[in-house]
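Dock glutathione; give full complex structure.
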Amino acid sequence: MPTLLYSPTSPYARKVRVLIRECGLTAQIGEQTALPLDDPEALLAANPLGKVPALRLDDGSVLYDSRVICAWVAAQSGARGDSGDAAHWQTQRRAALAEGVIDASVALVMEGRRPSAQQSDYWIGRWRNAIARSLDVLEGEVEALDCGIDAIASAAALGHLDLRHADLDWRGGRPRLAAWYAAFAQRPSMLATVPE
Ligand SMILES: N[C@@H](CCC(=O)N[C@@H](CS)C(=O)NCC(=O)O)C(=O)O
């Protein structure tokens, strides 16, 4: 069976794991823990970038990164990839925005692990500002978030902010996004993938 290599705290992997559950494909896709910073052999063999998530397919081939794996999962569930209408492209754009929040949130974590003298206030400021501006946009578009890839990526991003950056108080001034996330976080797919 296809097997997803993932780490429990990776928001990229969580996006894929939530989608698998929303598509009802848990019985068809296995999951195997791989902590990327330990450089496990199975992960390096699957993904030369050494990153999770990576998906091993039955024929021995591998898919990465999370966007490609999400597209593959959606295809397995029979979802059409590209409907071509304006709403489709806005969904893709919102998904990219949420993914950018994930990128900045993960970058902040990695920067915080460097010796403090080597940390860059400039980059920390840029990433924090990018997160704040992007969440403001999501606050304004929250009515468009349903259960598509934009919603799943947004939820993975907000979950990661809660896990790693409680100090950012992302809910402050964003009551609609906070209410949306509170409801979305109760979905079984989210509850089953809470970072350990
Ligand atoms: N663009 C990739 C990013 C994946 C990524 O950066 N994953 C992190 C975990 S949150 C990782 O494996 N980092 C290990 C490393 O950068 O060496 C995706 O969407 O899958």
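Observed: The chain has two domains: 3-76, 86-187.
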